[in-house]
Amino acid sequence: MDRDPDHPIIDRPWEYSIAELRYHSGLDGSEPFVDLVLQREAVVRRLRFWSPQQFQIEKGCFPHPTYGMQILDVSGRRLDRLRVWVSDFEGTDGAITFWARDVVDLDKLEAS
User: In what helix (H) or strand (E) does residue 71 lie, and over which residues does it extend?
Assistant: First the structure.
């Protein structure tokens, strides 16, 4: 199988630190999501990942560093309702990994 491409939502996510993480479980009947606020110097990106599955934070340096964080477009795999994979290509201690239905940029979403 060919390598999954980087998702176009953010360029070089491994250069960012995790400034905030929020997990909404959807117990109120809404769709579950994970919000990640990523920061690199003065640049802040707010991403929402819809319907996360197999969410895991490994033991280690969480939330710093995120040296190997990658956000991949796995839509080519044709998995049922999963098009995004957040993982770590360096096996960094404290990595966040999970699958998601989709990801959106919250700043662009709120501006429209």
Answer: strand 69-73
